[in-house]
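[Automated response] Your request has been received and processed.

Submitted sequence:
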Amino acid sequence: NIGQLYDTLGDTKQGLAFVQRALDVFEGVDDRAGRCDALSAIAEMMLESGRAPQDAAVPLDQARRIANRLGSHYEIARERIVRAQLEEHAGNADAAREAAEDALTSALAEDLAFYELHARARLASLDKDPAKVKEHADIVLTRLGEGVAVEHVDRLYSLVAKALRSIGDETRASECDDASRAAIELQASQIVTTAVRTRFLASKGLS
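Generated structure:
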């Protein structure tokens, strides 16, 4: 939606405002799936903008309750991916791994490639077992190499780079860093407005 687009372009404040408006609409028409997605998006944006995990937990806990009631693999995977991010920010590695594993289970149940790869990338970055790190990283890189269409490719490469670096595979970690930068630069090349492109690059740590 437009709120998440603003967030992707580096304007998280505007993105949050639009997602909050969407949430109000979803609540008004009792669209529970829409509410769940909007609440997860709000929590994710809050984390990315530097808000404390306990602040982001408020909307995310609401999303979790709705997702569990709906029993939707899509909504559960979505919420658990953000949950893994939140728990990692809070320093709870075990809880983060558990959330990522739940996300992977739900993603595999309905062949949700986007969430599967994000769950695997998160698990690769969290796991302490080199064999499991390599397994998840290899699957993510293979699927991306096959051209699987997913959003936030740069984040996937960054997570896998972190994972590979943790097991001493600096060569492939550097290749992932390069791939992440290339994905960002490709996105930037498609932004026509100079100010928006500059803000986008700055939000990604590039200039």
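Summary generated for your ticket: The chain has a mean pLDDT of 91. The CA atoms of residues 127 and 140 lie 15 Å apart.
If you did not submit this request, please reply to this message.
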